[in-house]
Amino acid sequence: MNVPPAKYLKTIPTLLAALAMSALFGCASPESENAETGAARVDENGVFVDGKPFRFLSGEMHYFRIMPECWRDRLEKLRACGLNTVATYVPWNLHEPSEGKFDFDGRADLAAYLKLCDEYGLKVMLRPAPYICSEWDFGGLPAWLLKDRNMHIRCSDGKYLEAVKKYYDKLFEIVKPFYCNNGGPIVAIQLENEYANFADDAKYIEFLRDYVLKTGFKGIIYSADPSPVFALTPLPVDGVWRTATCGDKFVATFKKMKRIQPDKPVMISELWAGQGMRLKIPMRVRDYKATAAELDEFLSMGGHVSFYMFHGGTTFGLMNGAMRKTKSNPEFLPLISSYDADALLNEAGDPMPKYFAFREVLLKYNPEAKKYAVPNASKKTVHSDVLFDKCAPMRENIANLSAKTFDSAILPTMEDADCNYGFIFHSTKIRPQISDKSRLYLFGIRDRVWVNLDGEDIGNVGQNDPEPIYSVGIRKSGSVLQILAENQGRVNIGATMVDNRKGVIGGVRVNNEFHYGWTTSTIPLNDISKLDWKPIVQTDGKSDYPMFFKGKFEVSEVADSYLTFGNFTRGYVWINGFLLGRYDKDSPLKTAYVPAQLVKMGANEIVLLECDAAVNPMLHFTNAPVGLVGDKIKVLKD
Questions:
Q1: Extended beta strands in 350-422, E state
Q2: Is the predicted pLDDT of residue 5 greater than 90, yes or no?
Q3: Pick from 601, 604, 602, 591: which is nearest to 561 by CA?
């Protein structure tokens, strides 16, 4: 059995207990259980951890969408809900934001999160990309992959696999100590994500499987694909447990998965408790009582489950994804920064009614969790109103915002310019034309552009608008054309995610000629400290947008709060230098969650980058979120 004698003697009481369990469940023998100490497996008899029967009752929480100071609170609430496992994605683009440069600190400190999961006795289902979807920019793929036009994503293309391997080498160096066979909490690792929705390259999935195995992992390797009741049959790969993702019809999914994979138990690895939110679409709120009843029936059949999301949190910064389904349905809809997702815990981590409804069901299958009390919701407060007294037009501050400026013949995309997020600014001189009027064409706008000719604004166009054709007069001495382009988030799912470059990706033509010869400045929005502020003198909506506004608010109690956006239209918000995310009047959520960890007693600074217009710039805080549900605006306390 390969066990030292002393250790073997210590395991005798455990083996005797396991023998009784084996008789009860009809599972492996004591000898095989002892050999499996530290391992996890799935077979026709079920799921086993350390050779003992195990039921996955899991909740998805992303460390990168939660303030690190809140990780303990959220894990305690997960455990008290009757769950025994945490599932989390690992976004490649967060950890390798530029090629070869890695970040595993702060909210990206995956090792610290895994250590806490272990401390709370929770197992971990790790979902380490390369692709995660997750309503996250480019589905977690790093934008710098797009710089190579000969690289093909999410397949066995050699260039892509080499990039994946370099990232995995760093990532698995960090997670390997947390493998179950190394005494850690990771009992399952997912390969890719919902691959049946994208392609059928078995060699690619086999490459990922083989990589994980070569690291020495002795746990469960699985895939996750949309329920076959609704979508494609999951791709079969040897040694990979196929699991389903769905939001309803759990029993039908169970039966169909049993027909597809009769030699394994059934797991819904994403039971959609709620969904991410897009612009212009009201929040989707599921009937949690009906879901709880169907969950009970599914679990009574022996099913395994992971809630997506148990707690959604916030997509801080510029990492929101976007949707653009097909060429026949090409509308581009960015996702919002809130990842509340109608989850069991809301964005602030407060237990919602569905938390208690699901807990009642889960405790039937994990009665040991009854000993854990449910922690209280966080304290909420209302900070003082925000008064803005300074502004800074973006186009007057290009030099103060730019990470680099360079000349090129062609009009570069943001990825060509190593500017993966934020804005990009182009300037050029157009030579005199023969006729008095010329036609100016812009091709492939991604995602919004502001066009200026000789100091006059001539266009503000988004990618959902018809591609613009401007009739312009070119000066006899030549004219200066300026284009400011904004990245509003990369498509994170489906076939159209291969079309994810940003800027003016098709170039500019003057009359019948492509125009060459550009000066480009990158504006990644990672440093706004050098802005040249001036007093606000014009607030009638005719100011030079995009425009930064700076103001202050007072905090008398450090606690969670929610920010409303008044007459502001669309843009970005920083709290004490931290880029909270985006706001938009078309968002189904009308407030932004401001964690207590971002504020301090006394005076606090707020900066908004307003892209469209703001009349009477003033903001208010409130103590509860407000959202559009169906056709009604309501306070989201239930």
A1: 386-393, 405-408
A2: no
A3: 591
